[in-house]
Amino acid sequence: MADNYLQFSESLDALTPKEAKWLAGQLAEDPETGCPVFLLDYDDREPDDTDCGFQHDFEGPRKHRSLWLSAEERGDVGRVAHLVRKFLKQFRPSQCWSLTYATTCSKLRLGEFGGGAVFVTAQDIRWNNAYDYIEEQRKLFDRRQQQELPLVRKAEQRKIEPAALDEAVHEAASQLAAGINNGGLDEQIAFLVERFGADETQRLVQAAAKG
Of 133, 153, 182, at which residue does a domain stop? Predict the structure, then answer.
């Protein structure tokens, strides 16, 4: 018999007294349900579920406290992320927070070791884990082997020159550009920063401002 674990250790730092008091209130038990207050609006909680999902402890001096969030055996990353998102939305809407976690096994069973990360903002929660990454890469590999490479070989056998596909590529790229442009400044600037970097994008924005 083997035991599986999900472990993590992270903190919310530089808490003001007001922030620490709010967090303490959220982690306290609701007198009617016995559930931590922050979980009362958690979508995945059953009515009789009162499990916080992680250990927590306040550390440091009163004016610069930290909330240590951890799990030694079977933590619930989703519940941590839910609390932190509510915190950011309440006090730090322009900031972000992240947590990495490990999934392990007490015996060296195949496929039982992994991990992942969660990235939290006031607006949303984004996930990534080792199993999803492997599955994504496997699908990309299969697509390359089963679809792309046969088409490349067929094009080479028929002596098709790259220029023959120029128009199709330009049309596809134009559709992509149209979608980005329709997304407004947020998507345009995000694309330009990813493509050219922040400095070059700043130059482009300045040039656009000058007309």
Answer: 133
